[in-house]
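Researcher: Batch entry, complex prediction.
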Amino acid sequence: MIHYIFADMLNDYPKLRDSMFSDRATQFKDRLKWEVHVDQHGHERDQYDGEAPLYLIAGTPDGRHAGSMRFLPTTGRNMVHEHFLGLTDGVRIESPFIWECTRFCLSPDAPRDTAAKLMLGAAEMGLASGLSHAVGVFDARMIPVYRRLGWSPAILGTKGAGRDAVSVGLWAFTTDVLPLLRSKSGIQEEESQTWMLNAFGPRLVA
Amino acid sequence: MAGTSRQLDTRLETVLDQLASVGTLDDLQTHILGLRDLFEVEHLVYHSVNAAGGQYAALSYDLDWVNRYIEQGYERVDPVVQGCFRRFHPIDWKSLDWSAKASRAFLHEALDHGVGNQGLSMPVRGPTGHFAVFTVNQSTDDEDWAGYRAEFLESLILTSHFLNNKALEIELGGNITDHKSLSPREVDALSFLALGCSRAEIADRLTISEHTLRVYIESARHKLGAANTTHAVARAISQGLIVV
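Model: Structure tokens for the complex:
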């Protein structure tokens, strides 16, 4: 299932929380060799985890992390402003209708449909919250994955090459992407709407 | 996104016109009362907490209720305060947890003091630990309220930021939107708009996608505290940021 968990509620899900931070260490430090900090518990956490973000987490049936993303409002402190201005043409992207998405992570043994589930969850969340776009920081090797799922970002900039390539891109929230994401993730509308309702209450927009 | 309908734009421009003459927190309190008609609700609340823990509120609730709330320290049990703090998405009061005995008692008392049963709260997060919530409140049924949300959500989100900018401006002194500088790309985008170029032409000239252009324009609109794109261009011209 998909969980929408705000940082202050994360401790209510210890297994999900710990396996997420541990999978992030595996992906960003071990696999991608990014310069990230891993603590004594083997968890990758950065200062933005302390900025009260929203986590969108795909969970396994036994309650572990399969994949996740982290969202912050662009009106507050965020990573794109503080580390990636060089990839956004120097534009400090800032609007209540645009959220930042970072740390897109997949567990090494994530089910094949996990990326589709996360993208569906993100699309539904954006549409329900009245957002126009997400600005995301991602491993450039994910670009073909986004394309296959029918929801590609407009790429603003990329730095580094190969394993080190990091891109910043914009995803537009539109209902057009929902049908393909539903079929690729195998999640029915009623099911995802229930998860949304639990996290955000009734739909804010019709 | 800003600028979806003419009616919405007129409403937001009215909010900004009125806010322009607000110079003190007392003015802001008066202004809040005026906004009730514009947003067609019984009550409005703007409540902010700065990084140092200082609080400020402008609101239309009954004074007896406000005093009772402060005296009882109800912010500790109020699910709206508890549920909006550390959040950044619009929150319908229906999605909050009212199940605790203290919360239910609090709700009954609030209703007795004329607070409506429906609420929508827009948290605002600033860059330096600043936090605020703008709330609209009404007595009505669920179906009517769903229609209200669909119609007003966007202008309420924008207004929450306009109010917050004004409150910060009063608190810190000076016009804070003046200090949010635009990048050369945002200036370019607004300059071409001022010259009457279409979005497709501008995107082409700046060699960016139209989505990227939309985001740059929206970013500039937000920093200028403008109601819509046309208004953002006008503000940029009047502040000497672009030359036509």
